[in-house]
Write a structure and sequence with these properties.
The protein is of the alpha+beta class and about 240 residues long. The protein contains three helices and eleven strands, in the order αββββαβββββββα. The strands form two sheets. Strands 1, 2, 3, 4, 5, 6, 7 and 8 form an eight-stranded mixed beta sheet that branches. The termini are far apart.
Amino acid sequence: MDSKRLARRGSQRIEALAQHFRSSSPSSTSGINSTQYKIKPTKRAAVLVCLFEGDDGKLRVILTKRASSLSTHSGEVALPGGKREEGDASYVETALREAKEEIGLDPSLVNVITTLEPFVTKYGVMVIPVIGRLSDKKAFTPILNAAEVEAIFYAPLEMFLKDENRRAEEREWMGQKYLFHFFDYEVENKKYVIWALTAGILIKVASVFYQQPPAFPEQRPKFWTAHPADNDSTPS
């Protein structure tokens, strides 16, 4: 199958994903009942899960490696994103603003599909994943903010459903055991480890997109328990 046909299939899959989220996600909600969470959220953040079709027709996601000089999560693989600021009108705006600041991604190149239900970390940070499609990969020339980002790379989304190059650690929180997943990925002779919250979000996105569960037990931590969030930014 030639690259153009593969790309069309990739586009059709993204549209199928968009339709799924539009039909299964609430069009608008406001407020959050913090008692629904195992941990009360005290901070708000958003990350951008930006997808595009590679030359091989496979769907890929943009990932970064955080700068080693950062005070928190230094050197870790992450999705572009960060803390919601007072001037941000929505979580979508937060995710797009952070992506532009971190990797120079022009918001006009991103077609936002929807937001996912939130993930709440055990440190009380509520993270909203914003799903978007990169409309023109050739038009995107990464400009890394050296103070925040050390590298950028693209990983195949389907990888997060496979048991290959995956390992896990069993951990415990408030008497309940859960798994932390680690995905090893190598590209251009550079090795990356995608784990923790970033891995959890990508497992979720891949599961919905490919309409199948991962080929391994997920066993998510209870503090990630998803409930309707204040998705005041869900696109119409």
